Amino acid sequence: MNNYISAKYPVVEIIIVNWNGLPDTIECIASMKKITYPNYKITVVDNGSAGNDSAMLEQEFGDYIDVIKSTRNLGFTGGCNIGIRQALDKGSDYVLLLNNDTVVASDFLSEMIKAAESDKEVGIAGAKIYNYGTNQIQFVWGGIDFYRGQPTYTPKYVIERFREGPIDKGQYDDLKYVDWASGCSLLIKSDLIKTIGVLDETFFALLEEVEYCTRARKSGYKVVYVPAAKVWHKWGKSTGVVSGFTVYYGTRNRFWLMKKYASKWQHCCFNIYFFGLYTWFAVAYYMLFARNPRIVIDLFHGIRDGVAGSNIYAPEILPDQ
Questions:
Q1: What is the tally of structural domains in the chain?
Q2: From CA 51, how far away is CA 217, in angstroms rounded?
């Protein structure tokens, strides 16, 4: 029977990175016990949590999960890569990166596998993401505006910041090929990983899925959005909606994304836009609306390290400080 399952259903290694998020991680794993896909394994990478999260998870779930404990916080990218490398060593056909602050529909993995297996050129599949506990759409797919150095979001990013997301009325129910999909639930073919490598660990967190999907597409693979795969995400739980963490890494990694993939003309347009308009708008927003001068410092730290290509993280906003 096991041989039959392995032959008919590709092996999926589900990788969850936990960092001081034990209650969310427990809820996430518990939701997976209801999924219908029969051939998966779960690896939890504990990313240097301060408490005894690893032991608590092993006690709660036993052999249902495999726990790997990192001695320090390697960021989302570093934590995922620990699990990805183990999955490849074990011969898994797919790797699913899943945020620990999510819960999933019972058929989400079956739908993602079905879409990925239907086209040999598909290397990455993404899910439809809802706000936790609601029918409000948080994210479906993204694009990239290299002239502004800005990933674009559907639904629009500003909607998620200032009011609730739109109710799902079937407006995003078409399967489609996209520039990038959300890293909070990202299915990746192992063949793709063997071709283009693992996540870029210098990104640490934020925009890492944009970089990875861009790298995949430039290598000839497709990224597909799968509307039937439904995941509920606790928005901003791991990074904060507006925080020094998100501002620093979002800014720095934006520059790094441009350096890796933008043309010279796009880079020129980006610099004019960013320094001529965006920076001053952001400063005004953080000072007058958010009323948080500390974030302005984090913004300029992100600009400094983004321009310089520095991999020295600002210690005052590192999540493990």
A1: 2
A2: 40
